[in-house]
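Chain X:
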Amino acid sequence: MTDPPPALRLQFADDMFLRRHEGATSPAVNQVLWRLDGPFDADRLRDLGARLAAGSLHRRVVRSRVPGARHRWAPAGTLPVVDLQTTAVAEDRLGDWAQTQADVPLDPARGLSWRISAADVVARAGTGAAGTVVGGVVSLTCAHAVADGAALIDAVVRAATNAEPIVVPAPERGTRALLADAADAAAQAAAVGRWAGAKARARAQSAAREIGGTRAPAGTVHEPVPPPPPEAGEAAGVAGHAGAGPATRVMPAVVGAPNGPGIVPGTAAEPVGPGAPVPAAVAQAAPQPADDAAWRAPVLHVELPSDQVTQAAAAHGGTPNTWFVAFLARLVHATGRFPGEPVPVALPVSTRDADDPRANSTKIARVTIPADVLAHRDLGWVRAAAKEAYTAVGQAEAGLAPVPLELVQMLPDTLVSRLPQPPVAAALASNLGRPPEGYTHAAGTAVRSVATLSHYQGATAAELRAAGGGLVAFCTTVGRTTTLSVAALDPDRVADAATLRRLVLAEAEAWKLPAAPW
């Protein structure tokens, strides 16, 4: 086992994601789906569950006893949840089954942080083989508070390959715990004090420059504004985090989303760019959703031949990664958002080190793609811009935050919940590429495809509308199959599954890619 730190405190992102499980906003949950060519292996999945329970995913929260101190992570001390279902799911109901598993509540504060479920898959009705087992499907859901994408992959690989797990340290007790909390509260208060001092000096320098007749360079002095509430980022990263702070909100904006154009309700879809025709199926106005508790954000998983994805990308001067970014940005245009304007896209970047015990360590790169680039599918431009954005994340220097994250983490839920939402990202594109073998085959050796996605459990149309809407997409390649997973958090432009399916399939057709939806 790797050596744990003496105490593992919740980072800002962990804390904000945790609050979503305890407040009025929707919890962020990451999901991995393995689609198998044969029935699921019950013994293998029980063993996987037991090994995951020995590692970093299996944690709970120990509340601090000193105001201002951060809560601590501790071993969950609960039995793993492995739900091996005896009722098979039809091939044409896979998407519904996957969503049902993603909707099962988790409670990371009390140690119910993740869950495995599995079912056999049978041929759809109306075929000669109807009812015959043709495969299996396995779902792993995990609270974003406990793990972002990189942490989840690491935990799964360690469990599947029998590698040493990352151990969450046991919490201190009694007087030692109280003293540790007091020390942490003092450190948090000191950080806020340093911020206040730096802010005062910056204002004094600004005033001196104004008196001297010179202005500060743009962006040197930031007026304080309330920090946005929890993000995600798929998240996360599966929601991620931009720098030290902006990456901790939940919705596509809440993933440390880029500041894009203002949020203006869209109508019928506009051309992807000047002179670019839009298929009639896409140009139809999206139906308006009913604002009731039963409405849920539509989700779609689509399988594509990976070799053809590579060929399509190369034909336009790019790679599968830049193809994915452009695909999603064009999809934003197809929904009717930002017609003829640039599309801002958030790109999660992992900063995770070896044996890193942190639950969330993602930063966000930002790229804004001009309309003409999208219209002409100029992946060479997208590739250069993405490379620049990734480089900028690695070289970014810590600046003076509008409000210190330490202060936000000290605030009670009643105050944090009143903070304004940040501008949202039009799209979050998280490409897992080809994951490690341990991750790919964690649920079985005969894996047909792997899908990954972030969900916001129970998010209503009103909540998503208030956050500004957007698209969250993940791309995972296994063997000969690339699986594109999209969640439409935009109730006014993509109100239902049929609309999302039509938009995604039309965009795949534009790239001449055969798409097989779940």
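Chain Y:
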Amino acid sequence: MDLSVSIPKARESDQPPHKSASAQARPAAANASDLEIWLQKVEAMGELKRITAEVDPDLEAATITYLVGAEKSPALLFENIKGHPGHRALYNMIGCNLSRFCLMIGEEPVDHPLKAVQILQQKLGRKMPPKEVPAESAICNQNIVNGDAVDIRIFPAQRMWPLDGGMYLGTGDAVITKDPESGRVNVGTYRMMIKGPREIGVYTSPGKDAGLDREKWWKMGKPMPIAAAFGIDPLLFLVAATSLPKTESEYEYYSGINGAPIELFTSDLTGLPLPARAEIILEGFVYPNETFAEGPFGEFTGYYGRPSGATPYMRVERVRYRDNPTLTCALMAENAANEAGLFWACLRAAGIWADLQKLGVPGVQGVWSIPEAAGWGITVVSIKQMYAGHASQVMALAAQCTAGAYFGKYVIVVDDDIDPTNVHQVLWAMATRSRPSQSIDILRETWSTFLDPSLNPPEIRPWGSKCLINACMDFRFIKTFSPRAKLSKEIYEKVVARWQELGLSGQAPVISVFEDESAPRKID
């Protein structure tokens, strides 16, 4: 588990695209963490389930989440964890629920995923510096344990799948490191398996920022200072799971999305800036050549990632935590319970859409990555075709732009009458508009991941390939292409107005594509 979706560089001068009530600065009660404030809002929405019955952190909590999270479902707050009195664990923070995703980025719920993608795309385009606060004001400093007194096993680390290599404290985390050359602070999300009372693994995929920072420290002959925060605001989880430009800090993007600066205090142990309103923070150092056998771990693909072998680990020198803390947990799975499903879908779609705009590509109507396809395995772009080769250009750029290059296997381009978030429409377009012998291109030797189970033997990873599918009408014959059967807008609106009268339940489906040609005379 090494979460990251690439997003292009923001400009500090960018302004917010709009205002909303919930996008205003979040209140910071003196004794409340950011997570606690967020959970209060979730509960007010009716989307929090408190589970007071005793639950085992070894497989049981994750199994409950997998079964509950298979469809629209509440966040799950386990308040009675076996062997860990006074501790709580939060699962299904977002899951497949668009309403909580909107809350995470500080917005009111929207009625369509593309609206959320557009908002996130705009918010990722701005940043704001963090705010330094005194260490004594940090809620995580209610309890501080140092040195030999440290035992990180007091926290309810989870085993999520039967073949996981151990108990994982870090899944929904924010790991803080610093580039020793530039001073840039990185915040990333990495899986962290407990090795011992004062030791915890830090798995980073090749090329990820924390790993690059570590190599620089080690080249200097020094251990890398590191901190890991848990019980965090889901927005901090979002930016930590996003690959931002390597010269910039995720803290600034958090502040930009939030509309108010994140509060940080500087550690006198590691010198790192730490989130003052996180509930749990581990601090320590990663020493040169100190590794252990970590994993495997049930990953976002729905398969176990191969055991990573020699994985560096943190020697924990200090633990900070609030009274009765909550551990944030992120289940990786093949179904809608995958915490990286909708989450990654919106992130990748927002990034690709922004990249296409910056590249000057016209006619883009919407971008979506299908959550059920491991969050970012399949991307769909809807365009209004404007010139010969337009669809092919969009396919190639969407597949290899900054936000789209990593891992994704399929890019599908459809016409503007297709909703890219509607899998049924996308499949229909593929079946009726693509020509397999002419509409499919393959890119080879592309950037993939060591966690892709289809690439065998594992030694060939992380090189992969991408399939580009043109599911648009052939532009050469677009004016004479067989007309699509579409509803009459007049009759549709008449039926919608009579929906209840007709005795039909719920709301009528929203239709946006209608017949625009004059109908033939009424047939008697």
